[in-house]
Specification:
With about 150 residues, the protein is an all-alpha fold. The chain is about 50% helix and about 0% strand. The longest helix has 18 residues.
Length: about 150
């Protein structure tokens, strides 16, 4: 499984991000491309230690059992529900959101896995740095495929 902490995997994601255009349309879901980029950045704020969303009741009950879906080889399902705090439904500036996301990917490279937040994922709970690295890559891959990239 690929990890955002591996330089070649981070470079691959960055190259794929550069293929997005402001008028890219989703193959599923309702987010516009700029909203998807902002959603991914908002998600990254959790392992980067910038936000600390609380654990929800459902996550406390079943998150541990569902956790492998975050970092295993199986693709994430289309239209999967998301963490409420990272739902983006307002307009965003495409270029600004793309640059912010690329900067976050660079931050993962500079900081490395040891700087990953110990705060639990709001649904899946406590994750190792290896699980975070795989999950972050998998989440980005899911959304890039959503836009045909």
């Amino acid at each position: 499984m690929k990890s955002i902490f591996e330089p070649r995997h981070a470079a691959e994601v960055t190259e794929r991000l550069d293929q997005l255009r402001e008028d890219s349309t989703p193959q599923w879901g309702t987010m516009r491309v700029s909203q998807m980029l902002a959603h991914c950045s908002a998600f990254h704020d959790i392992p980067l230690g910038n936000t600390f969303p609380p654990r929800g009741l459902l996550g406390r009950l079943v998150g541990r059992l569902a956790k492998p879906m975050f970092y295993n080889e199986k693709p994430l399902p289309h239209n999967m529900s998301t963490i409420p705090t990272i739902v983006i439904d307002d307009d965003r500036v495409f270029i600004a959101e793309k640059e912010k996301l690329k900067q976050q990917i660079n931050t993962f490279q500079v900081n490395g896995p040891d700087q990953c937040s110990q705060h639990p994922h709001p649904f899946f709970g406590k994750l190792t740095t290896e699980q975070w690295g795989k999950g972050i890559y998998k989440h980005l891959d899911h959304h890039l495929k959503q836009f045909g990239i």
